[in-house]
Amino acid sequence: MNFIRYTLFVFKVLTNILFPHYCLVCKKIGKSICYACYKKLEKTPLSCPYCLKKTKDGAFHDTCVRPGGIDGLISLFYYNRSLMKFLFGIKYRLAKGALQELFVRDDYIKQRVAVLKKHNIGAIVPIPLSRIRENKRGFNQSNIIAGLVSHQIKKPVWQVLIRKKNTQPLAKTKSKLERAEIIHNAFEVDERYMKDTVGKTLLLVDDVYTSGATTREAAKTLKACGVRRVFVFVVAQG
């Protein structure tokens, strides 16, 4: 047993020497996001993206909830240049461990995630990628975020949604109308979860919320199958 532990330790040391971690924002050797770059991230208030007023625990005001839409939004940071580079590095440099580093960075993130406990969440649902994109990348960052949130609020992760359309990345599309058209009817609910989701409050998880087209379409799909309320958790809000 001691030999195995020693071997693993040596392997870890050699890996760090040959393939050192570096900041995905400024390229400085060390953590996936260094202290200086982390300080540049702008914390978001709990507010409604429709009326821009503060909300209680991330839940939208009754007058702002849209039929078939989401019922609340909880985000961590604004989608500024530093966070954009960080998330880009996760997606395209396969730095999956970077999200884990971010979530244990300080108490702010733990406190913001803990707000979710007040909403009687039944299960956590990551926004799926198409099979083509997930196979190409090797992972879905929303699954990783969902797992980190699940660990803290002690709720299961359900792969309820299936992406039936291989849509282009919405970040490349500026028009809100175009985004809505691209993502229209992109999701369906896995039949295995149909009965379990009826009457539940589910938490949709994604990395970025900008126009809200993706989360609205996912929420519409879920509510059409009997889900009562849909909250959204994201790392970045644009």
Total helical segments: 10
Number of strands: 6
Strand content: 5-15%
Given this structure, which CATH class is correct? Alpha Beta
Spans with pLDDT under 50 lasting ≥5 residues? 9-19
- CATH architecture name: 3-Layer(aba) Sandwich
Sketch the major β-sheet.
4 strands, parallel
Q: State Rg.
A: 19 Å
The average pLDDT is 86
Shape: globular
CATH topology: Rossmann fold
Amount of helix: 25-40%
Task: Write the H/E string, N to C.
Answer: HHEHHHEHHEHEHEHE
**Distance between termini?**
49 Å
Q: Structural class of the helix and strand makeup?
A: alpha/beta
Describe the model.
There is one protein chain. Helix 10 links the parallel strand 5 (201-209) and strand 6 (229-237). Residues 9-19 have low confidence and may be disordered. It is built from ten helices and six strands; from the N terminus they run H-H-E-H-H-H-E-H-H-E-H-E-H-E-H-E. The longest helix has 17 residues, at 2-18. The radius of gyration is 19 Å and the shape is globular. With 238 residues, the chain is of the alpha/beta class. The strands form two sheets. The protein has a four-stranded parallel sheet with strand order 1-6-5-2. A two-stranded antiparallel ribbon has the order 3-4. The protein has one domain (41-237): Rossmann fold (3-Layer(aba) Sandwich).
